[in-house]
Amino acid sequence: MKIAGIYPNQIETDSKIQHAVSEPYGLEKILAIAKEQGHEVDLFTNLPEQELTEKIFNFNPDIAAFSLYTCQYPAGERIATKLKEKLPKIINIAGNRYPSFLKEKIKEPFDFFVIKEGEETFQELLKEITNGQNYESVKGLAFRKNKKGIFTGVRKRNFHLDSLPDALRFPVILNQTYQGISLPPLSKNPHYAIIESSRCCYNGCKFCDNAGFWGNRVSFRSPKKVVKEMFELKEKGTDIFYFMDLNFTAFPERTRELCQEMIEQKLDASWYAMSNTATVDGEGDILKLMKQAGCYKIAWGVESTNDRALEKMNKKVEGKLTTNNQTIRVLQESLESGILNQGYYIIGFPWETEESLLEDTKNLKNLPLHQFNIGIFTPIPLSKFYKEMLKNGHKLEPDLSHHDRNTLIYNHPTLTNKKIKQLQKQMHSDFYESPEYLKRMKRSCEIDPRFKQAFNEYFEFLGKEVRV
Fold first, then answer.
1. Which of 88, 222, 245, 316 lies 20 to 30 Å (CA to CA) from residue 459?
2. What is the pLDDT of residues 298-339, one digit of tens each?
């Protein structure tokens, strides 16, 4: 069969909330499973919707496999409808976060939803489509039968990730160039790829959908398999790797083992990862080892400078609250290890006001960050905050395409979408224009002179006059 992997995606990125480029890693894993079974596959993404749909028509697939976060669902629904109209025999399958939230609420134009972790479910579904059509036997599946939605139940997770084929990479992804502070710098047109060494996170932050999607038990790939894939991607032109692990340093010994493998194998690659400051506090040798292994940046979940807000988010590690002072301490240690710090920050929680946000903003200049990303709080299906807000009577924006971390989508007690966007823009500009920021940049360039060109090109890309 011919299988089209479809990831409807906004091409434009907003520097206030995100950087770099997009890669549908989960869908690439799904397509690798299909190719291993002998099917012809291709990936469709990073194009305007109409052009994307035309390319899918030309491919003439038997199956359309969609990966859909909440804000992508409307586009996926439109594309799937057009495919059904032109190719009546096509089978539309969707997975990822929003289909996993809907489950048995599945409706046309979709025939199947793959719920939560998808590789094994998709593999079995393809066999049933080809041979038996005994869909009730496939765990982790939702489908329509006699106009009624059926959910076959939760599939046990795969805790042996080495058993899965590597993600299938496509030119449409590998040819993208990285757009953030990078080594090599932007003028070198660095190409980027996602890599995975673990899945899930054991924390329970209430704004995150990890627990609702994965649970809280972390699964792993072996360091040797991870590094082998990185070598193969380097041969395909990858310059920068991004570890999509939700908390790269959650298990310090595993982090050390992976970094040692990179060093011993002489990988010589630039990479960055996401982490939680609390898991590095007191483990300073890890930062130095990560730098030695090629890590040039860490994306930290800062979320807020207000400890009371962090407590309301349940920002804890092993039951202990992550504090602003702890974050400052770890970020400074990271900086002194020669690593750039990227900080993710969230504004627009129900308890916040314009005054409280501006008060918390005063503390931003003390955060040893090099990149600052401010998202607007979005209650995500499968997260604890989503359930709480509906229970408390909040009304959510019905147009799911606005559920994008850059729009206020609920009836906030005191803030409007216009006001929160003004604050977001102001906070972003004030951060980069502060004297403390320039001092921080200069210090990082003293530690690693390669950063000077990277910083200057990045700010030219942003259209800012800041220079080292």
1. 245
2. 999 999 999 999 999 999 988 899 999 999 999 999 999 999
CB-side neighbour CA atoms (13 Å) of 169? 20
H-run or E-run covering 431: helix 417-432
Tell me the C-alpha distance between 9 and 18, whole Å. Answer: 14
Backbone phi, psi, residue 29, to 5°: -70, -40
Residue 90, token pair as written in the block: 């096509």
Q: Which of 223, 140, 170 is nearest to 59 (CA)?
A: 170
Domain architecture of the chain: domains with CATH: 2-151 (3.40.50.280), 177-462 (3.80.30.20)
Distance CA(10)–CA(228), nearest Å, equals 32
Q: What is the pLDDT of residues 412-454, one digit of tens each?
A: 999 999 999 999 999 998 998 899 999 999 999 999 999 999 9
Half-sphere CA count of 158, side-chain side, radius 13 A = 16
Give the pTM.
0.95
Asked if residues 276 and 203 have their Cβ atoms less than 8 Å apart, the reply is: yes
Q: Is residue 230 within 8 Å of 266, Cβ to Cβ?
A: no
